[in-house]
Amino acid sequence: MGFFISRYSNSEKKLWNSFILNCKNSHFMFHRDFMDYHSDRFEDFSLIIMNENNKIVTLLPGNVHKNVFYSHQGLTFGGFLMDKNIHAVDVIEIFDEVKDFLKINNIEKIIYKPVPVIYHQYPAQEDLYALFRNDAQLSRRDISSSILIEKGYNYSKSKQWSINKARKGGVSCKPIEQPSDLWGVIRAVLKENHQTSPVHSEAEIDYLKGKFPENIKAYAAFYQDEIVSACVTFESINVVHTQYLACNRLGRELRALDMLIDYVIAASSDYATIFDFGISNENNGRYLNNGLISQKESFGARAIVYDLYSVDLV
C-alpha cells in the first residue's frame, strides 16, 4: 500500500488529539497536553503514519535518548495507536518502514512498550505480531493486578474484616478536589518506605487534574479530620488505575487504606469495567513483591502483564 512517516510537530497537535479520540487503543495519557507537560525532560520523537490518501492510520508516541527510540519514557506504556480499520499486514509493513525511518535518523534500537490489553477498546495486538516478525526480545515483564468489576468481585474474609474494622473505628472516605492536598501523606509514605518521591510534583498533578478532570481523580480516608490514607486514580475509557496509594502509620493501624480502596472500587463500578492496581515488581520485573501482590489479590484482583520489548536496528 505504501505509508508515509513524519515526525510530530506542535502544529499538528489538533490533528494528533483528534485521532486518539477514536483509535482502538486510546488513553488520555496520549493527549498532547499530557505528553507535553514534561516535554523539557524528553526529546520528543513521536511519529505520524499516514496512508496514500493522507489519512492517519496510526500514531507512535516516542522520544529519543542516546540513539535509542523509546515509546515513551514519560509514559507507563505506549506503542502504536491504531485506527480500527487497520489490518495486520498493514502493521507489519508500517513497522518495517518505521525501522527504516529511524535508521535514517541514526537510531540504533527501539524500546517498545505496547498498550496492555485491558486498555484496548477493540482488539489491537497487531503490533505484538509485528514485533515477533522482527525478532523483538522481551526484555521486561511486570505483573499488575486487575479486577473485572463489571462481573462482580469478592474480597477475602480478612480483607472484609479490615474494611469493617476501619468503618467501626471512625474512618470516613470522600473525593478530594485538588490532588496536591494528598501530597503530604504520599510524600511521607514514599520517603519512609521506598526512599523515593512522587513522579509528579504538586504543581504538575494539579495542572494535569485541571486539564483532565474526568480522567484524574483523588480520594482520601479521614480519621478525626486528618488524612490518613490517599488514592489518586488515572482513568481511561474502561479502566480505573491506581496511580498513587498511600497510608500513614495511623492509617495502617486503622486499616484505612483497605476501606479507601473499597470506597474507590465501589465508586468506579458505576462507570468502569476494570479496576487496575498496577505492578508489584522491582528490579526490572525480576523481583515480585509477594506481600504487595497478595494484598491486591485479596480484593479479588488477578494478573495482567505490562511488557517491554527491544529491537536492534544495527
Could you walk me through the main structural features you see in this protein, from its secondary elements to its overall organization?
There is one protein chain. 31% of the residues lie in helices and 29% in strands. The protein has 314 residues and is of the alpha+beta class. The chain folds into two domains: 4-135, Aminopeptidase, CATH 3.40.630; 146-306, Gcn5-related N-acetyltransferase (GNAT) (Aminopeptidase), CATH 3.40.630.30. The strands form three sheets. It has an eleven-stranded mixed sheet. Strand 5 (63-65) and strand 6 (68-71) form a beta hairpin. Helix 3 (88-104) packs across helix 4 (126-133) and helix 5 crosses helix 9. The radius of gyration is 21 Å and the shape is elongated. The protein starts with a strand and ends with a strand. This is BioF2-like acetyltransferase domain-containing protein.
Task: Summarize the SSE layout with pairings.
Elements: E1 4-7, H1 13-20, H2 32-35, E2 43-44, E3 47-50, E4 56-60, E5 63-65, E6 68-71, E7 81-82, H3 88-104, E8 109-112, H4 126-133, E9 137-147, H5 157-168, E10 172-176, H6 183-194, H7 202-211, E11 216-223, E12 226-235, E13 239-247, H8 249-254, H9 256-268, E14 274-279, E15 281-282, E16 287-288, H10 290-297, E17 302-312
Parallel strand pairs: 6-8, 13-14
Antiparallel strand pairs: 1-3, 2-5, 3-4, 4-7, 5-6, 8-17, 9-14, 9-17, 10-11, 11-12, 12-13, 15-16
**Average predicted confidence as pLDDT:** 96
Tell me the strand order in the biggest sheet: 2-5-6-8-17-9-14-13-12-11-10
Percentage of residues in helical conformation: 25-40%
Total domains:
2
